[in-house]
Write a structure and sequence with these properties.
- By secondary structure, the protein is α+β, with helices and mostly antiparallel strands.
- The chain has one domain: Hotdog Thioesterase (Thiol Ester Dehydrase, Chain A), CATH 3.10.129.10.
- Helices cover about 20% and strands about 40% of the residues.
- The chain has three helices and six strands.
- A six-stranded antiparallel sheet has the order 1-2-4-5-6-3.
- The radius of gyration is 15 Å and the shape is globular.
- It starts with a helix and ends with a strand.
- The mean pLDDT is about 95.
C-alpha cells in the first residue's frame, strides 16, 4: 500500500484533515474509503453552500466532483500532482441544507501524463445527484506524500 492510501485511510472518520487543506474542511469532506485510484467521501450540505433558491450551488457540486477525481489521481501514488484540464458535469437532482452526500471518484485510464477520471454524487437514498468526467494532466509539482 502506498503512503497516500495509508494517509487517506487514516482520515476515515475524522472531521479535521491531517494536513493544511482548508477547501476539504470547507466542503465538510470525510473519507469513507480509499484505494489506489479510487476514493469515497461524504459531504454535508451547509448553509454557506446554498444558492439563493436553497439548493446546493452548482459551483460547489462541481468542486466536490473535481476534488473526488483529484483525490483518486493522488491515490495513484505518483510523484507529481495533477491539474484538471477539462471537466464535464451533469446536474441531475438538487441537494438541500443538512443533506449528507456520498461521492466517489475513480481513475478510468492512467496514461503517462494524462489521467481520465469520473466522479459521482449520491444522496442518502442513493439517488444520483450529479456526475462528472475529467482529464487531468501531470504537473511539474512534486508532492510531499
Amino acid at each position: 500500500m502506498n503512503a497516500r492510501i495509508e494517509f487517506f485511510k487514516n482520515q476515515i472518520g475524522k472531521d479535521k484533515w491531517a494536513f493544511d487543506y482548508p477547501l476539504m474542511e470547507w466542503l465538510k469532506a470525510q473519507v469513507l474509503e480509499a484505494d489506489e485510484s479510487h476514493v469515497k467521501m461524504q459531504f454535508t450540505v451547509e448553509a454557506y453552500m446554498l444558492n439563493p433558491i436553497g439548493m446546493l450551488h452548482g459551483g460547489v457540486v462541481a468542486t466536490m466532483l473535481d476534488e473526488l477525481m483529484g483525490a483518486a489521481g493522488f491515490l495513484l501514488g505518483r510523484l507529481t500532482g495533477y491539474a484538471t484540464i477539462n471537466m464535464n458535469v451533469d446536474y441531475l437532482y438538487p441537494a438541500r441544507l443538512g443533506e449528507k452526500i456520498t461521492g466517489e471518484g475513480r481513475i478510468i485510464r492512467a496514461g503517462k501524463t494524462v489521467l481520465h477520471a469520473e466522479s459521482k454524487l449520491h444522496n442518502a437514498g442513493n439517488r444520483l445527484l450529479a456526475k462528472a468526467t475529467s482529464n487531468l494532466i501531470a504537473t511539474t509539482t512534486v508532492l510531499p506524500i
